[in-house]
Amino acid sequence: MTEPHRGVSDEEVEQVIGRLLQFGVLLAAMVVLAGAALLLGRHGGAVASYAVFHAEPTPLRSIAGILRAAFSGDATGIVQLGLLLLILTPIVRVAFTLVAFVLQRDGTYIVVTAIVLALLLFGLVFGGA
Fold it and tell me: What is the 3-state secondary structure (H, E, C) of 76-110?
């Protein structure tokens, strides 16, 4: 007699999702704090001028630009990377949930979650365009 296929339980999924969210938020916070420390170290004595709005430089307005800046040691790029990680945390949660629904073979939730994930990714990639 063969043992029936044991799917992933809802409780196991919730545990992993909780850990994913905790890890994502903590990682994002550490990266932002590291970038902020670099910014303060390099520009802490500069006088802030709030009379004119200065947008982020064009290279920091795309995911590729943020990654290039962060990995080249640019403090603003590192802060932006931390914020990007914070944005990606719930997206990773949705992706993990999709995998869990696939393992549970729950067709309705697979379709709904796949649509939500596609919309989130579309918004992330093309939202600033």
Answer: HHHHHHHHHHHHHHHHHHHHHHHHHHHHHCCHHHH
**35, two tokens:** 């970038």
Q: At 20, list the tokens.
A: 């994913």
Residues 64-93 have pLDDT tens digits of: 999 999 999 999 999 999 999 999 999 999
- Quote the pTM value: 0.80
For residue 71, what is the enclosing H or E element?
A: helix 63-71
Q: Which amino acid is at 38?
A: L
78 contacts 34 by C-beta, under 8 angstroms: yes
Whole-angstrom CA distances from 78 to 69, 111, 121 are: 7, 35, 21
**Burial of residue 54 (number of CB atoms within 10 Å: 0-12, 13-18, 19+):** exposed
Q: CA quadruple 117, 22, 78, 36: dihedral positive or negative? A: positive
Q: Are 7 and 104 in contact (CB under 8 A)?
A: yes
